[in-house]
Design goal:
Layout lengths: L5 H6 L6 E5 L5 E5 H17 L7 E5 L3 H14 L2 E4 L6 H13 L4 E4 L1 H13 L8 H4 L1 E3 H4 L23 E6 L9 E5 H15 L6 E4 L6 H13 L3 E4 L2 H6 L3 H9 L3 E4 L1 H10 L15 E4 L6 H11 L9 E7 L4 E5 L8 E4 L20 E4 L3 E2 L3 E6 L12 E7 L10 H7 L6 E10 L2 E7 L4 E3 L2 E3 L1 H8 L10 E8 L4 E9 L4 H19 L3 E7 L12 H9 L4 H18 L9 H12 L18 H15 L5 H6 L3 H8 L9 E3 L18 E6 H14 L3 H16 L5 E6 L5 E8 L4 E4 L5 E2 L14 E8 L15 E7 L3 E8 L6 H17 L5
Parallel strand pairs: 1-10, 3-4, 3-5, 5-6, 9-10, 11-12, 12-13, 25-26, 29-33, 33-34
Antiparallel strand pairs: 1-2, 7-8, 13-14, 14-17, 15-16, 18-19, 19-20, 20-21, 22-23, 24-25, 27-33, 28-35, 29-30, 30-31, 30-32, 34-35
Helix pairs in contact: 2-3, 4-5, 8-9, 12-13, 16-18, 19-22, 24-25
């Protein structure tokens, strides 16, 4: 093997090759592999000073790619066991951290202050005792403990590195979707260097390649396949944050074209997401002839999406031979089988009814009714594959069975879980992957999943996790609910179906299923395609639910009648709710029909928030265009954020000259319990001057924004962080005298979007009738020099941010309506604004 361990791999790294980190504002930061090691030694020094010793575990809750790699390598060179886990902000993700904590011996955790605070709050709220106060006592803050690494004397860190044995643990890879029973795959140095050598040989990687990845570093393809693979081969690597790709998919190929990248990757959902958002092909002048391989794996591969992707990209010189279909799993350190380089998409047409374990496949031609499966090529170097039945009896070629693997790249088991390890690894070292497939001419074809994992939007979900969440609702009982992934042939992706044993009238079940869909969406961010009632739940003799039977029954059409009846009940219920008695504007009916026609899956009621129902930014942009064409008036994305329900949007559209004050939802902590006669305060003020003001001006000029827009953005971030505000739309007066417009603050993409037109004059506030919900507040950000009206702003707005510019400074005043707003909460938000406005520019 090329390397004995990962330490040798990074120490031999060098030259001018390294990692380029692409940030959310499009800027880039380069770090050579030599400097990566040097800076990781600084982080290791901090960890050692805090008492972290070789052999101890460190849970990594880090979103930012550069910090992730520094902490990861600090652990590797110090003999600490890194445990990278994707950062999530809902309760199910936090619960996963606690369950992993209980599996580990006595771990530490590192993350941002926000992430650590969320974990601590969840622990208190949920009465979690398993961490034994560890969030406080064994936690390290990225901001407090690792923020000033550049200020240290580098000579302090010249110290011996930990030299591991090949069988020593390098890191622990936990499954990406499971919260029910997380499994920590133990990956040793030998496992990793062996598999990386196999990847290098299979993909014919050399130092002449350049690689780009948008996959998270908590994903084995992102960390092992691209980071470690690039490092081992002295390949320049470019990293795009995953959430940036989700918001700006075309950046993927913008950067490939710019840097002449030769290697990249995506699972099935990535191609689909890119295609759905890729519209303005005429605006791109990409030359993608540089792309040698696009690794395609990590979830079931759709031949249709592959063909559509290549067809759409061929005008940019991306060839079909660049598609590199692969198969792997965490238990194999990543790679198991690779297609031959430059082969492109290879498939086999089979009879679907003959894909049960033990069946010999029947190949069909393209004109017969068939199921097309993707050929994934040959085993990678050092890895063996066999196909077996449930008892481990080996099948010959072209027989469907469970895929088993064996080799130096294969894990020895799950961390601190001997029973789980023994269940998947035989005495002679063969690991049961849980996947189904067959061998044809020495090549692997995967046909399904014996282990029932559901793939949704690039994430893996175990049915038991979804069922556990569902059981938190009244009326849902253990053993009487089953979640399944059902393959949608038209969309060529999994859909989430839930089956529930039911003894109540269908009308009651329809109501329950609607509530359950919303509950799961709110808790897990998952869209449930269909919930089906059962008169009997198929189970084994030992009581285990037979999910494959439910899937089979659905494909056989056994539920078509009940699904149709439920649909009719749903339509009747919705038509009743949209009766003339409830509808105050005829436009509501038109809007309901528009949403139903183009996005029927959202199931919007007239008072449902578009965004809470699942409307993405892409959907909102498309709906704004549709509404413009339908109602023949200018409609911006900001209008939908300001009027996020059908009722509010209808009210907005009902008058051609309509104007409104936009309100945003804030947490209840920002409001007083009841109205009082409290006097208005003199507000809070701060001034930015001197070099800080000069830097602020430079930043705004460079970003092509005004200082007023910068302040509005900063306050949007403040409310997002402190008040859990979403869909942040401010009333602003930043350009014209007495002219108020709406500005949408995108805190994730660091962007501010303004409406297409002026909404109203400041003087018009005197005739407006505004009804606010209990936890809604109207925010106004304005340039003091543009106010020409004597109107008292706090009679209409709950929060006012006022600024006044001079040649050398800016003075900001922050005011609030004390009869509605809580002073201490508002003061915190103003302090956050002042701190952020200064700190973001102090290093320029």
């Amino acid at each position: 093997m090329a390397f004995e361990n990962l330490i040798e791999m990074i120490r031999k790294g060098g030259g001018e090759r390294g990692v380029t980190f692409i940030s959310k504002n499009g800027s880039e930061k380069y770090l050579s592999y030599n400097m990566l090691l040097h800076n990781a030694q600084k982080v290791l020094q901090r960890l050692r000073c805090k008492g972290v010793n070789p052999g101890e575990e460190l849970i990594m809750q880090i979103e930012e790619n550069e910090l992730f790699l520094l902490v990861f390598w600090a652990c590797i060179i110090g003999g600490i066991i890194p445990v990278p886990i994707s950062v999530g902000h809902n309760d199910e993700h936090k619960l996963k951290i606690f369950k992993i904590w209980s599996i580990l011996n006595h771990p530490y955790v590192v993350g941002s202050e926000k992430t650590l605070a969320e974990l601590e709050n969840f622990a208190n709220k949920s009465n979690m005792t398993g961490m034994d106060g560890g969030v406080n006592r064994r936690a390290f803050s990225l901001e407090k403990d690792f923020s000033d690494l550049d200020n240290n004397n580098s000579s302090m860190f010249e110290q011996p590195l930990y030299w591991p044995e090949p069988h020593d643990i390098a890191f622990i890879q936990f499954s990406s979707g499971s919260t029910g029973t997380p499994k920590g795959v133990v990956l040793t140095h030998r496992n990793l260097v062996t598999n990386i050598e196999g990847i290098t040989a299979g993909a014919v990687i050399s130092s002449q390649d350049k690689a780009l990845s948008w996959l998270p570093l908590t994903h084995d393809m992102g960390l092992i396949g691209f980071h470690l693979g690039a490092l081992a081969n002295r390949v320049d690597l470019f990293l795009i944050p995953t959430d940036l790709f989700i918001r700006r998919p075309s950046l993927w190929f913008d950067k490939i074209n710019e840097h002449r990248v030769t290697l990249t990757s995506s699972p099935n959902f990535g191609y689909k997401h890119f295609l759905q958002s890729f519209r303005n092909v005429q605006d791109k002048d990409w030359d993608l002839s540089c792309v040698r391989l696009i690794f395609n794996g990590a979830e079931p591969i759709s031949p249709g999406i592959c063909r559509e992707f290549i067809a759409r990209m061929e005008p940019f010189q991306l060839t079909g031979s660049s598609l590199f279909n692969v198969y792997g799993l965490a238990e194999a350190s990543l790679a198991v089988a690779f297609s031959p380089v430059h082969e492109g998409l290879a498939t086999v047409n089979v009879e679907r009814s003959r894909l049960s374990i033990g069946c010999e496949i029947m190949e069909l031609n393209q004109y017969e009714e068939h199921w097309e499966v993707v050929d994934l090529g040959f085993p990678v170097m050092y890895c063996e594959i066999r196909i077996c039945d449930e008892e481990g009896i080996i099948f010959p070629e072209k027989h469907v069975g469970i895929i088993h693997i064996k080799g130096e790249n294969v894990t020895t088991g799950y961390y601190n879980d001997p029973a789980g390890s023994a269940a998947i690894i035989s005495a002679d070292g063969w690991l049961n992957t849980g996947d189904l497939g067959f061998i044809r001419d020495g090549r692997l074809i995967v046909t399904g999943r014996a282990k029932d994992i559901i793939f949704v939007n690039g994430q893996n979900y175990y049915p038991s996790d979804i069922e556990t969440v569902a059981q938190q609702m009244d009326g849902i009982e253990l053993g009487k609910i089953a979640a399944c992934g059902v393959w949608n042939k038209e969309r060529e992706s999994d859909e989430l179906f839930i089956f529930i044993w039911n003894k109540h009238p269908l009308e009651r079940f329809v109501k329950q299923s609607t509530e359950l869909k919303r509950y799961i969406s709110g808790k897990m961010g998952l869209d449930v395609s269909c919930i089906i009632p059962l008169s009997t739940m198929p189970k084994t003799t030992s009581g285990k639910i037979q999910r494959f039977m439910l899937n089979q029954w659905y494909e056989e059409g056994k539920f078509e009648i009940v699904i149709r009846e439920m649909h009719e009940i749903q339509i009747l219920s919705e038509s009743t709710s949209l009766s003339a008695k409830e509808t105050s504007f005829g436009l509501e009916d038109e809007l309901v029909e528009l949403w139903r026609r183009y996005y029927p899956d959202l199931k919007l009621g007239i008072n449902d928030n578009f965004f809470e129902a699942g409307a993405t930014s892409l959907i909102v942009n498309q709906m704004a265009d549709l509404m413009e064409k339908t109602f023949n008036r200018n409609i911006s994305v900001t209008d939908l954020f300001a009027n996020p329900t059908i009722v509010k949007m209808a009210r907005f559209l009902s008058c051609r000259d309509a104007f409104s004050i936009s309100c945003i939802q804030l947490s209840s902590a920002f409001f007083v319990n009841n109205s009082t006669n409290a006097n208005r305060s003199n507000g809070y003020h701060f001034t930015i001057s001197g070099s800080t003001f000069k830097n602020l001006s430079l930043v705004c000029t460079g970003q092509q924004i005004t200082i007023g827009e910068y302040l509005a953005f900063c306050y949007g971030v403040a409310l997002s962080k402190l008040a859990d505000a979403k869909n942040i739309v401010f009333n602003t007066m930043l350009e014209q005298e007495n002219s108020v417009e709406l500005s949408f603050i995108d805190t994730l993409d660091m962007d501010l979007q303004k409406g297409n037109q002026s909404y109203f004059s400041l003087d018009d506030l005197q005739i407006i009738k505004l009804k606010k919900e209990l936890t809604e507040a109207a925010v106004f950000v304005y340039d003091k020099t543009l106010k020409r009206s004597g109107i008292e702003l706090l009679n209409y707005f709950d929060i006012v941010i006022e600024f006044e510019l001079t040649a050398n400074s800016i003075t900001v005043g922050c005011y609030f309506e004390p009869r509605r707003m809580h002073e201490m909460a508002l003061k915190d938000s103003f302090d956050y604004l002042a701190e952020m406005a200064c700190n973001l520019v102090k290093e320029v």
